[in-house]
Amino acid sequence: MINGVVMKINVDELIICALKEDMPHEDVTTNAIMPEAKRGKAELICKQDGVIAGFSVFQRVFEILDETSEFQAFFKDGNPVKKGDLLGILKGDIRVILSGERTALNYLQRMSGIATFTASLVKELEGYDTKLLDTRKTTPNMRILAPI
Question: Does the pTM exceed 0.70?
Answer without folding.
Answer: yes
